[in-house]
Amino acid sequence: MGLLVDGKWTEEEVNYGKRSEKGEYQRANSVVRDWVTADGAPGPSGNGGFKAEPGRYHLYVAINCPWAHRTMMVRHLKGLEDIVGMSQTSPVRDDQGWVFLNDEDRFRDDLFGFDHLHQVYTRSDPGFTGRVTVPALWDKERKVLVNNESSEIIRMFNSAFDGVGASGPELYPENLRAEIDEINDVVYSNFNNGVYRSGFATTQEAYEKAVGGVFDTLDLLEERLSTTRFLVGDAPTEADWRLFPTLVRFDVAYHSAFKCNKKRIVDYPNLWAYTRELYQSPGIAETVDLDTYRRGYHSASVVRNPLGIVPLGPDLDFNEPIGPRP
C-alpha cells in the first residue's frame, strides 16, 4: 500500500517502519492532531481555532475500518448526524488507497467529488507526507483536516458539540475517566491492535506473542463481564464503544484472516451476550456490515490470501435474545 510523500502518491518500496527486526507489526502514529473544542481553544494537542459549530465539520470514514467505526457510532450516539456531515469511501481500496465511487450514493465524496481520499489530504496540505487513513475530520471553514486519530475524534464528539445541539449519553464521565483510560490501554494494545499485530506478523515468534495477548485479553474481559454489565460503570462508555468494533469483526474476519483462531467470540458466553447487547442498542446495527468485513479482510493478498477466496461463514445472529446479564 502506498502513501503520500511531499504531497505525491507513492507506491511503498520499504516497510516505512511497519515491522521490527523480530517481525512485529508496528502501527504508524496519526499525524493530524488538532481538536474541535466548544470555544475554539486549543485541545490537548495541536492548534486552536476549531470551534464547534453546526455544519462546519465533515467526517470521512470507511465502513470496514474499525477505527472509523468508533467515530460513526459516537456520531450517532451523540445525535450529531445533522451537525457533522459524513462521507464514506468504498470498502475496497485500489493502488491509490481509499476510493470514492461518485456515481453511487453511498460511497461518494460529498464535499469535493474527489476520486481518492489522498486528494482530501493534499487539499488540506499540498506537501503532506504520511499514510492516508480513516477516520479523518475536515473543517469546511478553514479548509483543512482537523484530526485523523479516532480516539481523539470520539472525545471531541462526546463533549465539544454539547452547546450546539448534541445530545445523548456522556461517554467519558469525569468520575470514571481513570478506569476508562486504564481499560482502554489494555484493550487497545493487546486486542484492538493485537489482532493486527497477529495478522501482520512476519515471524512465528511475533505471531505467537501477539495472538497470546489477544486471547489473554479476551479471557480477562470474559471474567470482568461475569460480574459487570459493561466495562466501566452501569452504562456503556467510551471503553465499550472502543472495544465493540473489534468484537463484531472477530468471528467473521480476524479469527480466520488474521489467524486469531484459538477461540471465537461466540465461545465466550459473557462476551458474546455483551457484544449482542451493544449491537442491539438503537442505531448501532446500521453501522455494522458483516459481509463487507468478511470480504474485506479476506481480499486477495500475496501474503495472507493469495487466491482471494472469501469464506461463506460463520453464520452469526447478533439479534439473538440476550438473556440475563449481571
What layout of secondary structure does this protein have?
Layout (H helix, E strand, L loop, with lengths): L2 E3 L2 E3 L46 E5 L4 H12 L6 E5 L28 H8 L11 E4 L4 E4 L2 H10 L17 H16 L1 H6 L4 H21 L13 H20 L11 H11 L10 H8 L29
Compact summary:
By secondary structure, the chain is α+β, with helices and mostly antiparallel strands.
Q: Based on helices, strands and strand pairing, what is the structural class?
A: alpha+beta
Residues in β-strands, percent: 5-15%
Number of DSSP helices? 9
Basic shape = globular
CATH topology title of the largest domain = Glutaredoxin
Number of folding domains?
2
- How much is the radius of gyration in Å? 19 Å
Largest sheet: 4 strands, mixed
Q: What's the number of extended β-strand segments?
A: 6
Strands of the biggest beta sheet: in what spatial order?
Answer: 4-3-5-6
Global mean pLDDT: 95
Structure write-up:
There is one protein chain. With 326 residues, the chain is of the alpha+beta class. The chain has nine helices and six strands. Strands 4-3-5-6 form a four-stranded mixed β-sheet, sandwiched between helices. The chain has a two-stranded antiparallel sheet with strand order 1-2. Strand 1 and strand 2 form a beta hairpin. The longest helix is centred in the middle third of the chain and has 21 residues, at 204-224. The radius of gyration is 19 Å and the shape is globular.
